[in-house]
Amino acid sequence: MRWGNSFKKLAILAAVVVFALYHWSRTILPLSSISINQFFDPVIDNLVHAPSLKDTYIIKAKQFGINDDHDFLRLYLSSCLLVPDSTKEELTLKHKNYVKYLFSSENTVDAYAPVRKGTKAWNDYKGKNGIVYIGGGKYSWISFLSIVQLRKTGSKTPVEVFIPSIEEYDQKFCEEILPQYNARCLVFKDPFLGKRRLQLTGYQYKMLALLMSSYENTMYVDSDVNPLHNPDFLFTSELYRKNGLLLWPDHWARTTSPDFYDIVGIDVREKKVRHSNKDLKKDPVPPLSEGTFQNSDFHDFENTIPNPTVEAGVLLVNKSTHVRTLQLALYYNVLGPDFYYPLLTQGGAGEGDKDTFNAAAHVLDEPYHLCAKQFRWIGYHNKDKDAFDAKGLGIHDPVGALADEENAKVLFIHCSYPKYFPGTVAPELAYSTGEHIRMYDNVNENVGYDVDLRLMENFAKYFCKNYKAAGVQSKYEETWAGTFLPYVKEEYTQFEATCEELFLPHLEWLRKETKYRNTNKHGSL
Ligand SMILES: *[C@@H]1O[C@H](CO)[C@@H](O)[C@H](O)[C@H]1NC(C)=O
């Protein structure tokens, strides 16, 4: 009897414990995962209400390449955009408040991700590597092409495709096709953010995609960027472990307003610490001690963000070490179109989000590495113009570039002009005489295979119903992307004839004429 009683008590106790644990897990755990509004509310608290600076330039900053013979002097950069005193005051105050918040105990986030330490979600996130793209509508199509190409390079890194709104969710694409490529969709169900119901667009999606990605180590890849070799090694590279943020240089010289430095509380003194490319071409090279604001590029002075600007088509970031950098980049991007894009670029080349990441890291004094090798223009000699025609940007392997800048491999191609939409790519493939064009002619030797052939193979396989693999009779139903992407189905009605008359014959021509017979087998570095 005594044992029976104890057993009953034990059983009741066990039931209470189980119930309590269950209750705790239901109530406590969900509370400890955090809402993405915790990232947006502090931004909203520090929005700036002064009139927008967008398109208020006195003159748009000139566009000079980093190797052009030109210095941007302080006086010039101060006279492109006039920032009214009251606007500058408000920007300064709000920026200071926000940075203060970032370092205060109120900022309780553990990473630039809606997960909290000590939860299951955290364990899933911690130490994971992955790649994120932005999809939705026509961007799902080019993201898909890049993912196909990624897998051809041998990459095993998982992928997420950020879909900005539920209306752009293509079920078959997300649930059947992507999983075959170790990829999945991240659907953004409520695009209204924080207590002010902010709605982001365009460039700002990048910050959201980075925030929502499930990986501590997230590589962001623009949908019009194609990897040419397997990029997986970057995640484990010493270079990345040491810096936690890898960025790539743009072609353009920096045109940031001196007012930007005042606003973010950085004192730029007249002490020259670097030579510009123009200096280095002089003989003798003028000593740094002779540098003044009147004779030297403003961004060669102490505490400025060094040249060149950043090409943010690809970046790799540790969302834990760089949580504050990303929070500040979020701030610069939410306030970007009205204030920070004009301040950082002043209407110069490629105004947008591209310089917000290094600006944020610079302001917070957190490390980042900018690939040591400039990007290269990829293109061909256009016979009609008798001139080089640039069709894409080559983004180099930053590890190789440190060891041997001269021979660094091109790791990604940013297919900016044209992107692989049928309407934009079609006019680029042949001269008016009908003669075919190999668009990326000047990069194949570096890459080791035929980039035109590879990318056209990917494009035609999924866009043209009558695509046939080389030497094989294949059935179109297997690959045509019109069965899972409404965008492709729609476009195909317009471009069916272009498939027969141009895309497929062009592919045949590339196959026949290529110097790189093994093109479809290559990829890994
Ligand atoms: C990313 O940062 C976290 C936090 O500092 C660190 O524990 C982790 O090792 C870092 N990951 C890599 C790949 O460096």
From TrEMBL:
Organism domain of life: Eukaryota
Single GO MF descriptor: alpha-1,2-mannosyltransferase activity
UniProt-listed SUPFAM superfamilies: Nucleotide-diphospho-sugar transferases (SSF53448)
UniProt xrefs under InterPro entries: Alpha_mannosyltransferase, Nucleotide-diphossugar_trans
Any one of the GO CC terms: Golgi membrane
Pfam families: Mannosyl_trans3
Subcellular location: Golgi apparatus membrane
GO biological process: mannan biosynthetic process
Membrane topology: Single-pass type II membrane protein
Keywords from the UniProt entry: Golgi apparatus, Membrane, Signal-anchor, Transferase, Transmembrane, Transmembrane helix
Similarity comment: family membership: Belongs to the MNN1/MNT family.
Protein name: Alpha-1,2-mannosyltransferase
Organism encoding this protein: Australozyma saopauloensis
